[in-house]
Structure formats: C-alpha cells, structure tokens
Amino acid sequence: MVRVGIIGATGYTGLELLRILENHPEVDIAWVTSESYAGMELEEYCPAWRRRRSFTLRKQELSEWIKEVDVVFLALPHGLAMDYVPFLLQKTRVIDLGADFRIKDVGIYEKHYRLEHRARTLVEEAVYGIPEIYRSEIRKAHLVANPGCYPTSVIIPLYPLLREGIRFRSVVVDSKSGVSGAGKKATEEVHFCEVDENFKAYKIGEHRHQPEIEEQLKRWGEIGGLTFIPHLLPLRRGILSTIYLEFAEDRSEKELWEIWQRYFATEPWVRVLPGGRFPELKWVLGSNFIDMGLKKLREGQVVVISAIDNLTKGASGQAVQNMNVMFGLDEKIGLPATVLYP
Q: Are 97 and 74 in contact (CB under 8 A)?
C-alpha cells in the first residue's frame, strides 16, 4: 500500500483527490490537513463524506506526521508549496498540484505570479508531471510538478507533432473552462450572478498558464508565436480547447492522425477520436480521459480540439496518475474511467 498525506484537503483539487484516492485499492490515506478547518471532521465540512471513512482535518504541522507517509500531495494555492517542499523532500516524495515548480525559468515564474521564489534550488529537480511525455523521469522523481489544467489540454495533443519535426508558424489556443478552475476562494468575477448565463474571455495576453505552455512546447520544437485566450464557461467543470495551427510545411490530415495513433494507441487515458468526430465536455466529465480530434482546414492550417475534466485529468486525476507511475503501479488503477453523464 502507498501511504499518502494531503495538505490542503478542502479546496476543489483536495476534495477531488480524496474522491479518487478513497477508491484506490493500493492507497491508504494516512492524514489530511486544512489550515482553515483544522479540528473539524471531514464529514462535517463536506456532508458527502457521511457514512464513508471519517477523517479529522489536521492543522498543517508536519514534523510528527511526515514519517507516516510515502508521498504527500500539496493542494495549495500558488506561492505556498515552496515553503513546504524543502522540508518534505528530506522525508518523503512530493506531488505539488500548484504552480510553484512547473516553470523552469524562475524569472518568468516570478514575473507572472508576482512572487519571489523561495525554493529556487529545487525548481530544476522538479519533474513536469505529464506521464504521456515524462513517464521515465516521473518514475524516479522525488518532486513532481503537476501541470496546469489548460496546459494539459494543449501540450498533450501538440507534443507528438512537434516531436516528429513538424514546425508551426503560429499556435492560437482558444480555451474554455468551467468555473471550478478558478478555485474555491470567492471573488467577484466568479460570483453566481456574474457567471450564470454569461460567457467571456479573461486575462487576455496575461494568463499565468501561457508561459507554462510556451516553455513546454518549445522543448520539443518550433512553435512560432503562441496566442492563448482563456474563456470562462457558466459550468462547474471541464475544459474544451480549440487550437489553430499554421504549419511551416503542409501536412495531410491522415499523416497527423497517424502520428497521434503511434504515440497514443497504448496510452490508457488518451482517446484519439476517428475522423469527423470531435471532443465534447459531456464525454469526459468526472473521468481522467483527454479526448482529442483534428481537422485540416486548408493547406498548412489544421484545427485540433481537446477536452478534459479540469479537476481530474487537469489536476487531481493526473496527480494520482503520477503517483501510480512513481510507485510502479498500473496507471489505470484507482482512476475514474466512468463519465458523469448526463
């Protein structure tokens, strides 16, 4: 059994981790913490846990508990994990669901997150946690930086094309996310009256996930200019990304689809849709799948569409997939394949 601890269990990603890990046959949840609700029973905070396993939410004082676990999940807002990781790595392995260790260029992180990085020496050690790309590195890692939700929806479909030498003149990413992607903290822009029956673009040209996407894609090839425009859907969960690619050299739709097939045919959580079919949010919600489809528009121009659940494959599900890789478990085990439909 893999013994796990969760720091920050009462946010959306923390509760999603609990949902997944409680049903994982190879996991024992040793403890969970919450700074805001320390001392409270989980079922008191979240009635969905009644008549299930009981957890007392602990305060985030780790010195005595750390020896009880094999891995710690950090489900904290950005800027907080960097204060925990140096201590945790002395005792155990860590999967950080926040942004603090995703971007290798610390100066870019500090610019976009407006924070001084307080654990700079550990950034290079962190492995970016997309198993479909970095599986061998994740297997040996002590610190995994779980990717952002938008980046997951973009990087997975584009990686094989870049790896095969296809050069992009430009990449335009039009992504739409449910409101849970903004986290649980109340703000005016995610107030019910602002979101319900509304649809808008936000943080145009300044979203923090753009440098994360750009840094990862540039590791594998030439992308030209990247434009990333996120939008807020009046939904709880899900991300649909429409990615417009302009190629330096023309490629056939069949060739691109065959590249995807070569890379993803044996990947348990990637579903490449047949020609003429395109992803929809309702077919991924609650699951760890990423669905992908593509269509050639005209010479040198292709549109790629992907869909994920932002809380599962875009966050907590991918974190558990990373844990499975780190501990030599089947990547499918314990992860949800069923979809919340309708």
A: yes
Average pLDDT of the residues in 277-286: 97
In contact, 212 and 151? CB cutoff 8 Å: yes
Q: Measured between alpha carbons, how far is 164 from 251 in angstroms, rounded to an integer?
A: 12
Model pLDDT for residues 163-204, shown as the tens digit of each residue: 999 999 999 999 999 999 988 877 888 889 999 999 999 999
Q: Is 116 helix (H, G, I), strand (E, B) or coil?
A: coil
Place of tokens 């995703």: 102
> CB 274: neighbour CB atoms within 10 A?
7
| Mean pLDDT score, 257-267 | 97
- Round to whole Å and give the CA distance between 61 and 278: 47
State phi, psi for 65 to the nearest 5 degrees. Answer: -90, -20
Can you point out the beta strands (E) in the chain? 2-7, 27-33, 71-74, 93-96, 127-128, 143-145, 168-177, 200-201, 225-232, 239-247, 270-272, 290-298, 301-308
pLDDT tens digits, residue range 57-87? 998 777 778 989 999 999 999 999 999 999 9
Q: Domains of the chain, with CATH numbers?
A: 2-125 (3.40.50.720), 150-310 (3.30.360.10)
Buried b / exposed e across 326-338, counting CB within 10 Å, b at 16+? Answer: beebebeebbbee
pLDDT of residue 26: 98
Residues forming the active site: 149
Question: Is the C-alpha dihedral spanning 34, 39, 40, 41 positive or negative?
Answer: positive
